[in-house]
Amino acid sequence: MPLWLSGWNFSGRPILDTATVGDLVLRLSVLKVSDLPVNQSLFARSAMVDLVRRLHETTDIGCYHKGHAENRDPFDLTQYQWPNYLSPINSQWLERNGTEWLYFETQPLWTGAQDFFWLTPIDHQYCVMGHFMVTQWLRNAGNPYRQAERSPTSNYRQLLESIMDTISIELSNEAKTAQQSRGSANIDYPLPNITDQMVTEAKHTLYMWSGKGYTDKSQPQQGGDHRAPKEDVAAFIDQRIQPRPLPGCLAIGPAFVQDEENPGGRPEPAVIADHR
Question: How much is the pLDDT for 4?
Fold first, then answer.
């Protein structure tokens, strides 16, 4: 159920850039999870982690698209599948204005917005989701890697942080009682994580798309390889997935986990923040 939708435009440099170089959109909504297991509640942090996994299973952030061989060999009949996003990254539990939020980000790998999700339960089956989307329009930067290379998202992040500072949620007395009964005050902070295999796939996908909508002036415009160096793309992903605690961080996960460390997709224990 949608609650509120708004957006903010970001202007570029006079003359040098177009009138708008990007925007930040916030969609606030209430999600109902009607098929929870018996006696399960969204007030349990593990149920919120499961909800994040379900978002990845049912939305574009967890989908794949058709890829191809690196040299576009016409005789290669392999069915390549590349991920749309690397997600969830920088996942953490936050306290903001007396409300506990589960937060995570996404990194687009071929197209699409960069997402910032904030989720908090308000009932056994309901939660509020704040979904921020950053979209950039930059000249000669038609893919996520070149956009990140040209323009950082720090200004967008500052604005969304300021917006979240103004949001306050007051639970009903009944919901407060339910929250306390489910033990949300305990020290267990499970978090969703990406795996090393997902990181490897993301590096390859982002590299393969790094020439889309971009012209390298050192290369022939037709037939040249306009992709970025593989090592530069890999370094960007390595930097992008590093944990960055936000103000009010209660617990934060690692950059990634090994596949064998996270069997069956079970949540990895979080690192409790020192500055709670």
Answer: 84
Distance set, CA 85 to CA 25, 93, 224, 228, 276 (Å) = 18, 21, 26, 18, 30
pLDDT digits (tens, 9 = 90+) for 1-41: 778 889 998 876 544 555 678 999 999 999 999 888 888 89
| Strands 126-136 and 22-32, bridge-based pairing | antiparallel
Residue that the structure tokens 């149920």 belong to: 47
Higher pLDDT, 186 or 60: 60
pTM exceeds 0.85: yes
Q: Are 99 and 169 in contact (CB under 8 A)?
A: yes
Beta bridge partners of 83: 64
Q: How many CB atoms lie within 10 A of CB 195?
A: 17
Q: So where are the chain's domains? A: 2-272
Q: Does the pLDDT of residue 264 top 70, yes or no?
A: no
What's the mean pLDDT in 110-115? 97
129 token code pair:
């989701």
In a 3-state reduction of DSSP, which class is residue 131? strand
Per-chain mean pLDDT for the chain: 89
E-assigned strands of the chain? 2-10, 22-32, 64-66, 81-83, 85-96, 99-108, 114-121, 126-136, 190-191, 249-252, 268-269, 271-272
> Would you say 189 and 45 are in contact if contact means Cβ atoms under 8 Å apart?
yes
Q: Which stretch of 2-6, 90-94, 252-256 has the lowest confidence by average pLDDT? A: 2-6
Residue 25 and residue 132 in contact, taking contact as beta carbons nearer than 8 Å: yes
Question: What is the DSSP secondary-structure string of 57-113?
Answer: HHSGGG-EEE---TT--TT-----EEESEEEEEEEEEEEETTEEEEEEEEEESSSS-
Q: Which residues pair with 17 in a beta bridge?
A: none
| Joined tokens for residue 180 | 């306390």
